[in-house]
C-alpha cells in the first residue's frame, strides 16, 4: 500500500502531490476509449479473416519464388486464386413433373399437344401403331426420346404403374378457372354440363369421371383446391387420355363456385344414396347442370348439400349398398345425355 509523506498509508484514490508540485491523477488514461471505434480495417488487412490469411499465404508464396500471380484475388473460402476453385454444390430442386404411363394415355397426350419434356421407351419394346405414332409425334415436336432399360422405366413410372414400355414426362397440370370454362360454354350457345367433385381423394375415380364426362358430352370437371385429388399421373392413366380433351378446373372454394354457377343460371344437382329425387325422374336434365359427386364414405358435405337445387339418388338393387363414385357419375351422365337426346 502506498504511504503518504507523513509515513501513514494513503487513502485509495486520493490525489497526491508529486515532488515537482504537479498533481498526479487518472485523467487522460481512458481518452482513447472515449474517442470511439476507429474505421474497420479491410478484410485482407485483418490477419484472422480468411481474406487476410489468403493474402499472407500469397505473400509467402511469392516470396518463396512461386509462380502465382502477386496480388491475385482469393475466393470467399480463402483459397489462392491460382488454384482451381472448389465446385459449387448444386441444390436439388423438387421435380413436380408427372409420368403419364401406358400406350393409350401417352399417344392421346401427344395428340393433344400436352407439353412434355421427355418420352421414355423401354429397351427392345414390342412396337405397335401406338408406339410408332408416339415416337413420330415426339420427333416432330422436338421432344427427346430416351431408350431405357425396363427396371429404370419401372422406377420412373412408380411401383404401381403399368407403363407397357412407354412413358411420357409432363410438367404439372395447368388447371382452368371454373367460371372461365362456364363463360366459354355459354358463349358457344351450348347447354352446360359439368361435374364437380366433393371430397374425392382417389385419383382413379377422378380419371374415370374425366373419361365419362368426355364420353357423354360434358364440358369439364371441377375439383376443389383442398381435401381433394388433383390431376396426377394415375388420373391420366385411368382417363385413358380423355384428360387431354376434357378440361379440369380448380375451385378455391367449391361452395362459392357452385353459388356462382347458380347465379349464372346453372342448376346444381348432387348425388346421394338418400336423395329425394330418383335419377330417371330428373326433370332438370335438359337444363344447364353441374353434377356434384361426393366421396363414397362421407358423401356430400353439408354446405354443398344446402347449395344443391336437387339431391338425386340412383335406384340400385338392395344387395348393393352403394356405387363407386366414378360409376355413379358415369350412370348419371349417361341418363342426362339420354334424356337430352330425346329433346
Automatic annotation (TrEMBL):
Coiled coil location: none
Q: Which InterPro entries match?
A: Alpha/beta_knot_MTases (IPR029028), Ribosomal_eL30-like_sf (IPR029064), rRNA_MeTrfase_TrmH (IPR004441), SpoU_MeTrfase (IPR001537), SpoU_subst-bd (IPR013123), tRNA_m1G_MTases_N (IPR029026)
Q: Where is this region: Disordered?
A: 1-97
What Gene3D superfamilies does its record include?
3.30.1330.30, 3.40.1280.10
- RNA 2-O ribose methyltransferase substrate binding domain segment(s): 99-176
Q: Name one GO molecular function term.
A: RNA methyltransferase activity
Record's keyword annotation contains Methyltransferase = yes
Q: Where is the composition biased (Basic and acidic residues)?
A: 34-48
GO process annotations (BP): methylation; RNA processing
Q: Which GO terms describe its cellular component?
A: cytosol
Keyword annotations for this protein, in alphabetical order, are:
Methyltransferase, Transferase
Record family assignment? Belongs to the class IV-like SAM-binding methyltransferase superfamily. RNA methyltransferase TrmH family.
Q: What is the recorded name of this protein?
A: 23S rRNA (Guanosine(2251)-2'-O)-methyltransferase RlmB
Question: What's the name of its gene?
Answer: rlmB
